[in-house]
Specification:
Radius of gyration: 22 Å
Largest sheet: 9 strands, antiparallel
Shape: globular
Number of helices: 4
Oligomer: single chain
Strand order of the largest sheet: 4-3-2-1-9-8-7-6-5
Strand content: 15-25%
Mean pLDDT: 84
Low-confidence stretches: 1-32
Length: about 280
């Protein structure tokens, strides 16, 4: 080993040691062994807490490269980050006619002038995100768990779900977030979701579905701080076969972690109303 390489290696070890020393866990939330899963009094995995996906699936479920911002001529600000597919097998199995619609959605995802062409990405319009998209939006969400019910509160537009456990019921009507029924399979929470409308997208890239969408979610704890999230997608009107996406979810352990207010209707006033939007008085 040369003297220069030896010095470099020593310096690297010093930097690594300094980083390790600098990392501190919030008070009362020290790390647990990976094999130790917190449990509720009835023995089920304790999913209570704030969780968040840390990926680029909301931009595009499939492989995608970096791209400039579709909204602003502002260099790297707002640029689309590159990301790898979260779809099992890499590609979504579209029917030919449904793929044509996906490509049209992709072209129309960004509106033109204010007040026009708002038939774009539902997220852009502040519509409810649907399932599974609500899980991997760039916002945290909170799970509240009891023996008979699971509640999920999403930061985005105060979207929320009530998931009864044990007894399944039919969806009484179509809705943006669908109708959820839950059950436990060992340590995995399984949620069967039906009763969707056809208005939501899976991502900003125009990936879509019909009102025949059926989603089966699986939340499996793999440590005290990680869930493996899987969603099996069925929609015979749009896809040639069922397909699956998967990703880890991370427990937020920030000292003051909480779901904050993100009411987005006021953020889309100019998009929908143009010159008739609410004007903030100037001094």
């Amino acid at each position: 080993m040369t003297r220069r390489r030896a010095i470099t290696n020593v310096a690297g070890c010093v930097v690594l040691a300094m980083v390790c020393v600098a990392v501190e866990w919030p008070a009362g939330q020290g790390p647990l062994p990976q094999t130790q899963i917190p449990r509720t009094p009835d023995g089920k995995p304790d999913l209570n807490g704030i969780w968040q996906a840390m990926n680029t699936a909301n931009y595009d479920l499939e492989d995608h490269g970096a791209a400039p911002s579709p909204f602003l001529l502002a260099g790297a600000i707002g640029a689309i980050p590159p990301g790898e597919s979260v779809v099992e097998g890499g590609r979504i199995p579209y029917r030919p006619e449904a793929l044509v619609k996906r490509n049209e959605n992709r072209k129309n995802a960004i509106p033109g002038k204010p007040g026009r062409n708002v038939a774009a990405d539902p997220e852009l319009n502040c519509f409810l995100p649907g399932v599974p998209r609500a899980t991997y939006l760039p916002h945290p969400f909170q799970i509240f768990q009891s023996q008979k019910l699971i509640w999920i509160l999403y930061q985005y537009s105060y979207a929320r779900r009530e998931i009864p456990l044990g007894t399944s019921t039919e969806a009484p009507y179509e809705s943006w977030m669908g109708w959820s029924n839950g059950r436990w399979e060992g340590d995995t929470l399984v949620v069967d979701v039906t009763g969707f409308n056809d208005q939501t997208w899976f991502d900003r890239a125009g990936n879509h579905h019909s009102d025949a969408l059926h989603v089966i979610e699986r939340y499996t704890p793999i440590s005290a701080y990680h869930l493996m999230y899987e969603a099996t997608i069925e929609d015979p009107k749009v896809f040639t076969r069922p397909w699956k996406l998967a990703m880890p979810l991370y427990r937020r352990i920030d000292r003051n972690a909480r779901v904050l207010e993100f009411k987005c209707p006021e953020l889309v006033e100019e998009l929908h109303l143009g010159q008739y939007r609410k004007v903030t008085p100037t001094r």
